[in-house]
Design a protein that fits this description.
12 helices, globular, 4pyrrol_Mease, 279 residues, 2 domains, Methyltransferase, Cobalt-precorrin-4 Transmethylase, Domain 2
Length: 279
């Protein structure tokens, strides 16, 4: 049996009881470590904290293991119970859907244990979840690569009056271009996109495209460490949010569409001006 278990967003305690039972009866436990991170994942003792609570040794599955050596994980699941831990909900990333498909083709039984993910936790700001359009991913720009395919999606959402969730780039154990050219992988330091970087890139693309999909005055909501005790939610214009220090990762951003009065009332609690007045 292959158990794919959502861990939620906060820390090791956010696992469900059903998920914990599955972990404890599994012979092998893996944790996926590149599509997202729990709040403790950035600390040096994060993994040991997890192992102590769950009572199991845990193998970190990086991108290479999941995408290139998934069959090794699935082979173990043909003869024993294997738990594959995923931050958030198991189907928050297409990689995990692919894992299920491959497991079923090999005749491996799969059980999924769901949990909270960024896709529903953003509801904390008061914007109604059914009023969101297509989610977009914002990658880090480089000197030679500045993609803008997300622009049309944001533009389409805003024409329909819908909110847009922007998932910000996470680069963990990414081989450097120089090392790939040399044929020997060397990895870049981990990088996590901040709200300010996302807004700078969004405004750069708007300036280049000039189609008024959004402006520096467009209302947005910035989030940091969703689901954690120290989560931060701040609403304001793009220009205002550029000046906010959201602190450690992980961050995400919502570009606000048309709002209902109830949404406005809730969003008002997170407005930057109000926060500054309370300080």
């Amino acid at each position: 049996m292959l158990y794919i278990i959502g861990l939620g967003l906060g820390d090791e305690k956010d696992i469900t009881l059903r998920g914990l039972e599955a972990v404890q009866k599994s012979q092998k436990v893996f944790i996926e470590a590149y599509t997202s991170l729990l709040s403790f994942g950035i600390s040096s003792d994060g993994l040991s904290t997890l192992e102590k609570l769950y009572g199991k040794s845990i193998t970190v599955a990086d991108r290479e293991m999941v995408e290139e050596k998934a069959d090794d994980i699935l082979l173990e699941a043909t003869s024993s119970d294997v738990a594959f831990l995923v931050v958030g909900d198991p189907f928050g990333a297409t990689t995990h859907t692919d894992l299920v498909v491959r497991a079923k083709k090999l005749g491996v039984d799969v059980k999924v244990v769901h949990n909270a993910s960024v896709m529903n936790a953003i509801g904390v700001c008061g914007l109604q979840l059914y009023r969101y359009g297509e989610t977009v991913s914002l990658p880090f720009f480089t000197d030679t690569w500045r993609p803008d395919s997300f622009y049309e999606k944001i533009q389409r959402n805003r024409k329909l009056g819908l909110h847009t969730l922007c998932l910000l780039d996470i680069r963990v154990k990414e081989p450097s271009l120089e090392s790939l050219c040399r044929g020997k992988k060397q990895y870049e330091p981990p990088r996590f996109m901040a709200v300010s970087v996302a807004i700078e890139q969004l405004l750069e693309v708007e300036q280049m495209r000039g189609e008024n999909a959004y402006t520096e005055d467009t209302t947005c909501v910035g989030f940091a460490r969703l689901g954690s005790e120290d989560q931060l939610v701040v609403a304001g214009s793009m220009k205002q949010l550029l000046e906010v220090d959201f602190g450690p990762p992980l961050h995400c951003l919502v570009i606000v569409g048309d709002t209902h009065p109830v949404e406005e009332e809730m969003l008002d609690f997170y407005k930057l001006a109000k926060k500054q007045g309370q300080a």
